[in-house]
Fold:
Amino acid sequence: MELLRRLCGIQAPAGQEAAMQEFLLEYINRNKTWWKNMPQVIHGEDFQHCIMLVFGQPRTAVFAHIDNIGFTVRYNNELVKIGGPRTNSGYILCGEDEQGIVEGVLECDEDHHLTIKSNRTIATGTALSFKQNWREDNEFVQSCYMDNRLGVYNALKLAETLQDGVIVFSCWEEHGGGSVPYIVKYLWENFKIRQALISDITWITEGVQHGKGVVVSLRDSGLPRKVYVDRIRKILSDHKIDFQLEVESSGGSDGNEIQKQPYPIDWCFVGAAEDFVHSPDEKVSKQDIRSMITAYELLMEKL
Structure:
C-alpha cells in the first residue's frame, strides 16, 4: 500500500495536475524496464498533463483520471469548490501560494458560505486540497483522494503485466472533464480503439458493500451499451472473480465523455467502492482493491 499512500498524498486539483504528471512520468520511467512488456509513453503539449501508455497491439483502453477535488481561494480567504468536495467545518486544507506553504481549517456557515481560517490571507487563485491522514489496518485503507488515486494505482499495477492495451491517465474529470475528447480522437485515429474500461471509484450504497468485490456499473448518469457490459460480467463470472452490480441515476466518470464523442467506443465503469465519498476520510476494503486489480488483468486479456 506504500505506492497508494504516496499517490493519495499528492495535491493535484482539477486543472492543476502537473504534480501528478511529474510523479507518474518519473515512476513509469523508473519501473517500465522490469514490466513484462515495454510500453510506448505518450505525453507532451498536445496532451496537456495527460499520459498514455501503449502496449503491444491494443484493443481496449483503461482510463484513470489523475485529478482531485478541492477548493480555489477567492478573496479574503473565501473558497470556491473544485468539483464536489464535502464541506464540513473542521476539515484541514493545505496548498501553496507565492508566500509558501498554506494550511488552515475549512469553515462552512449556515448559508453554506465557505472560508478557510488561516494565520494569513491566502493569495487569490490558490488551489487547496484536503490534508492527508493515512489510516490502514488488515481490512481497510482510508485517506483523502482514494478517488481516484486508487484508480491510478490499479492502472500502474496493471502496467506491470499488460501485453496489449492502452492505459490513459486523464485530467479534469472531477470538474466537468475536458481531456477525454482529444484522447479518444487520438486513440481512434491511431489504434481504432473500440473498447474502454473506467478505472475509477464508486460509492458504498444499500446495494454495494465493502468486501464483496469490484463494482461493475450497469449505469449512472451515463448509460453504457448492455451487450458490452454483459461481456464483462460473463468474463468475471466464468473466472469466479467476486464482483457487485451497481445501478445509479447520478454520478459519472470519464465514461460519460467517451459516450458523447463521435466514435463507436464501448465503455464500462469497473472499480472498487468507497465510504465517505469526496471527504478526507475515503475508505476502501483491501479485499475490493485486490478484486479490482485481478479483474482488470483478466478483462484486458479476454476482452
User: Anything to note?
Assistant: The chain has two domains: 2-68+135-302, 70-130. The helical segments are 2-8, 18-31, 146-159, 180-191, 226-238, 254-259, 286-302.
